[in-house]
Design a protein that fits this description.
Layout: H1 4-19, E1 23-28, H2 39-42, E2 51-56, E3 61-66, H3 67-70, E4 80-84, H4 89-99, E5 104-106, H5 120-129, E6 139-141, H6 143-151, H7 155-178, H8 185-198, E7 202-203, E8 212-215, E9 236-241, E10 243-245, E11 248-249, E12 252-258, H9 266-285, H10 292-305, E13 350-353, E14 356-358, E15 364-366, E16 369-373, E17 378-380, E18 389-391
Parallel strand pairs: 1-5, 3-4, 5-6, 12-18
Antiparallel strand pairs: 1-2, 2-3, 7-10, 8-9, 9-12, 10-11, 13-16, 14-15, 16-17
Length: 393
């Protein structure tokens, strides 16, 4: 199987050609301190000196790097590795003159953090290096390129995400079998983290709140860590949990009820079924070409039609190298999301579907599933939770 970095490099060149962009310039330095999100899809290592990695629509791949960095680059990724000593400008201008691109995509974006890897300082420096050349006026945002490139998961990437999802579900099953009334959020949290480490996996986001463990009706809902709040009979327990396997993430949420299924209050049952059915409704319309905001609207309306208030988050984000992977968002057209909800879904995208609602007496109910967009619709990568998990005693 072709190396994933090389496969993503080939894919990037193909998308450049598709978009009519002549080249893509990744302009980076000291990447162990300031890592461009796009760089990690190409290579795992770092560069220290200022470096220009250039991919062209014709398929050529060029690296202009400091001499001390040159031998550490994965040589199979690049057709040309040009080393410099004192000043990168002569080699950079020479290579641009040789390929003479009419458009040069750089990593700047107002809306998409995954496409905004160039710092303001690096952009200013690049512009000064190109000031006396025709190439300064040919710089353009790489946002569209990066969104397609990160979002169109290759089969190797999907396989890694499947593995991460499967491990997440396995750990959910293990912990559900160990739960008892009276355990604290912190005790449950520690058990989950120990299982992640035992399986040799990483965490899909910062481990201080992974997993989110929310017991009872009064716990703050969101990106918060565990407390000493205890589980109680008749209460709900909410998990938000994801792992990282071979560099790719999962992101799932599950709901547990402490009691027998016959004891589930109608208020809880109605809320759970509302969220479950909203996910089903969104999955039914999720397919290539649909606008992200239109998918969000289906689930959002289903929740509000059931008598609940509007939830204050997007229905779903993309998942990949990061739990929040950028690109088209299944979300409402709110200012904080920029133009991401107006993006169109593509085959190969992996999304979460995660509506939620607040009950009057039992707190938040939220589920989250991971789905892969196929050529004709979507496939659940996770096994959807269709019933509350009941823990008796």
């Amino acid at each position: 199987m072709i190396d994933l970095g090389a496969a993503k490099a080939i894919q990037a060149c193909e998308i450049l050609d598709e978009l009519g962009l002549d080249c893509w310039l990744l302009w980076v330095r000291e990447t162990d301190q300031m890592t461009d999100p796009a760089l990690r899809l190409l290579m795992a290592g770092d560069v220290v000196w200022p470096s220009a990695l250039i991919l062209t629509r014709s398929g050529e791949r060029i690296a202009i790097v400091g001499r001390f960095d040159a031998d550490g680059l994965p040589a199979h990724l690049f057709d040309r590795i040009v080393a410099y000593d004192e000043d990168i400008q002569p080699q950079l201008v020479a290579e641009l003159t040789r390929i003479d691109p009419q458009s040069i995509a750089i990593n700047t974006s107002r809306s998409d953090v995954g496409a905004d890897g160039m710092t303001a300082g690096m952009r200013d420096w690049l512009m000064s290096l190109l000031e006396e050349t025709p190439y300064l006026g040919r710089l353009t945002s790489a946002e569209s390129l990066i969104q397609r490139w990160r979002g169109r998961k290759l089969p190797q990437e999907v396989a890694c995400i499947r593995s991460a999802v499967a491990l997440t579900e396995r750990i959910f099953d293990e912990i559900a079998a160990e739960l008892t009334v009276g355990m604290t959020e912190r005790e449950i949290f520690d058990r989950v983290q120990a299982k992640v480490e035992r399986h040799g996996a990483g965490f899909a986001w910062h481990r201080d709140h992974n997993p989110a463990v929310d017991a009872g009706p009064d716990k703050a809902f969101g990106h918060v860590g565990p407390t000493d709040r205890r589980t109680r009979s008749g209460h709900l327990l909410h998990f938000d949990f994801g792992v990282r396997v071979d560099g790719y993430c999962s992101d799932l949420q599950r709901m547990i009820f402490f009691g027998r299924s016959a004891e589930i209050p109608e208020e809880v049952d109605h809320g759970f079924r509302t969220i479950r059915d909203a996910i089903r409704a969104a999955a039914a319309v999720l397919k290539p070409g649909i606008v992200g905001a239109d998918v969000d609207a289906v689930a959002r309306q289903a929740v509000m039609d059931a008598g609940y208030g509007e939830y204050m988050n997007a229905l779903g984000h993309q998942v990949g190298r990061n739990a929040h992977d950028g690109g088209t968002l299944l979300g409402p057209r709110w200012s904080r999301y920029g133009d991401l909800p107006d993006g169109r879904v593509e085959a190969g995208n992996v999304f979460t579907l995660e509506p939620n609602l607040k009950t009057a007496s039992y707190g938040m109910i939220s589920l989250e599933e991971d789905v892969l967009v196929t050529e004709s619709g979507c496939e659940f990568l996770s096994v959807p939770q269709t019933e509350l998990i009941c823990v008796e005693g």
